[in-house]
Amino acid sequence: MLVSHRKKFIYTKTVKTAGTSVECYFEKYCMPEGDWAFMHNRTEHVSHTGIIGQRGKNARQNEWYNHMKAIDIKNKIGDKIWNDYFKFCVIRNPFDRLVSLYFHRNAADKTTGATEESTVQHFRNWFEGTLSAHNRKAYTINGKLCLDYFIRFEDLATGIEFVCERLGLPFDAEKIPQLKTAKRDKSVPISDLFTPDMRSVVEKAYEAEIREFGYGFPA
Fold first, then answer.
1. What tens digit of pLDDT does each residue of 143-155 get?
2. Does this model's pTM top 0.85?
3. Strand partners, 65
4. How many angstroms separate the Cα of 168 from the Cα of each of 9, 37, 38, 137?
5. How far apart are CA 13 and CA 89, in angstroms?
6. Closest by Cα among 117, 198, 151, 199 to 26
């Protein structure tokens, strides 16, 4: 998560949405000018210029950490800053996000040369034990949307460009970090991974996200 006093914005970080890539793109504006250097993991940073929540091992042991709830950020910075600053995050189709989460968590268990059939069954077995990666508390307070803008993962560069224009920041698509992209096997279509019953479970569990942002089952 980010708070920039220099540029007056707040970024809440969602799970499995290219959140670290977007965080890295904007975090330089939360530090004194010239102090920033790229780091995949980062310790908590708090200064007169802004706040960067820690990401990496034991992040939640800090006052400020990467996947904080919106209400916790608001309570810590106060109503005036929360209301005055431009607030944004990244959203993603829940079906696609669950598949991404699966490959992220199971990368170490996947054997080289796994067949399409084994991937499908492995995913379905994993799915029975998880419906995590809920992101609503990063962009809602008391169940209501509380941010000003939502970057869509499916059109990441366009969303980042909009935020930059809104904040008067330079935009360079080539400088958007491409992080955590190597773990996913895209040879199996998402539509092949979900049974009709699994699809119904996701539609019920993420009904609000699907309704609010117009997502559906990938073709």
1. 999 999 999 999 9
2. yes
3. 54
4. 11, 21, 22, 28
5. 6
6. 151
